[in-house]
Design goal:
With 136 residues, this protein is an alpha/beta fold. It has five helices and five strands, in the order βαβαβαβαβα. The chain has a five-stranded parallel beta sheet with strand order 2-1-3-4-5, sandwiched between helices. The longest helix has 22 residues. It is globular. 28% of the residues are buried.
Amino acid sequence: MATQKILILDDSRIVQLTIRNMLPIGNYNVLEASDGETGLAMIFKQHPSLIFLDWRLPKVSGWEIFQILKSEPELQKIPLIVMCVLKSEVTRNVPEPFDYFECLEKPFGKKQLMEAMQAAVDKAYQRWLHAHPTSP
């Protein structure tokens, strides 16, 4: 079975380590990037199975990365967790409810992280179902 990849895109090394330590034990590689430009390159090169995306990143913002993910059919299937200090940072650009991604406010605990991961996977699955309707 192929190893899954989880990408943590955050300019804080502390946040990267916190998420890494909160993740359940599993068969996956954790990739990290500290700016949007590097993170975007990793998305296209590594094809992660899940992305943690800080909304405020240097070089290329989380908002810009989100727009790219949403516009590329091959990237739309990736579950996405957007991280922010205040949800209002995100709602300035994207109105609630967030049907494309799960929003996780910092600081967060393991329970919130696990719930966000499940919700992001569910939302990605719903996008896939919507893009592949069943025939009657």
